[in-house]
Amino acid sequence: MKFLFNYQSQGIAFGDWITLLTLCLAPVVAHILAGTPSPVIFSTRPPRWMNRIGHYNPTSIIWRYFVIFDRRMRCRNWTVSDLAATNAHFWVDNAWDGSEEMMLRSRGFSSHLPDRSYVHALSGSAIKTIIVALQGAQALYSVIAAQFTAEYLGNTSLATVFLPLAILGLLRLPAAPWISDDWVYSNDCAMDIRPRSKKPEAGNFDEKVPLEELTASRSSTLDVTPLEDEAIAGRFRSSKGPIGILTRVVYLTINLALAGYATYQAAPVADGQMSATLYAQIIFFAILFISTSFISAFYFLGGKSKTTIIPCIDSPWYKAYTALIFLGMILLITLGAIETRKTWCGEWTTYPLTVPGHPDQVFNFCGPAFFLRTSNLTVSDANHNRTISLSNFDGVLSGNWSFVNGIL
């Protein structure tokens, strides 16, 4: 495998730079905006940026999609309160909590709930789903087309370095009917506070508790009160049941398939040639998909896959992994900005014009073409029944041409 690195973007106009950067960042921005909700703060100390950054990791976003879908499938009686709490990211006692227990505890703090237990077809969330789904469909088509033609690989440029990220948007579709941002929570606990000393009526958790009690009683799935344990067992089917196992197997299989494909593409090919941007793109997404698969499998097997916030969100290693992902994105943008050039047919590519070591051979991603240098030559295009004369020509001639007469 030979890796090609060329600085060839010096001739790009300012307007084209704006277009390239817009196309480059569109999948990233859409993925983050559609997949990351605003935090609900139940703490006197709000989260710092280091606490928030993990939510923007693509691994965290698709994990959230999976758990929303899984929770809906396992819930016996899905309500608007469940919809709101499942979509929220709660910051409690200086830590994130997206557990089923927190879903019950937070009910008394909701100041606005959706009017239905699923997403309206004309809501903002539905529009976000349509956007990321269309981007994902385009990316998937490009990846499939790459198996039959070199066009996609040759057209890798600054505009397409994050196109594979859009494929992850398709993982939003199973959970799309229950991904909503039509909810508001308030941490004002000075009004309508009721004691929790007595067990409420069956299924009635829509009561407020003091914020201090909420934070003090924060627990994980391994540390729940008997009342909460009883309520959760009554509302949700076991994650070890047929539905829970099926959703986890399907989710993990999709991630492993993406990881396997990216790893296969990263394998060196004898006598192959690849631009530095394209290879960096393949390595980046191989790391992302492999890491996501490993993390998901670890928590699936450990029985910690029922929280909408990935359990390792506050771990130093996950923050380092998130920083690595964003550094990789910066590297991709930098390489793409250096190597991208416009071809004669208007497409963008990171490959050079000619094959290194073979100046008469053209990297051709625009149809039939060849490099030609002549002082006087007449050529004929059989497809269009026309003949043209070339004088002092030095460049790329596109199309199916045959020589009539002249001097090369």
From TrEMBL:
This is Uncharacterized protein. The chain crosses the membrane at residues 12-33, 53-69, 245-264, 276-301, 321-338. It comes from the Eukaryota. It comes from Microthyrium microscopicum. Keywords: Membrane, Transmembrane, Transmembrane helix.
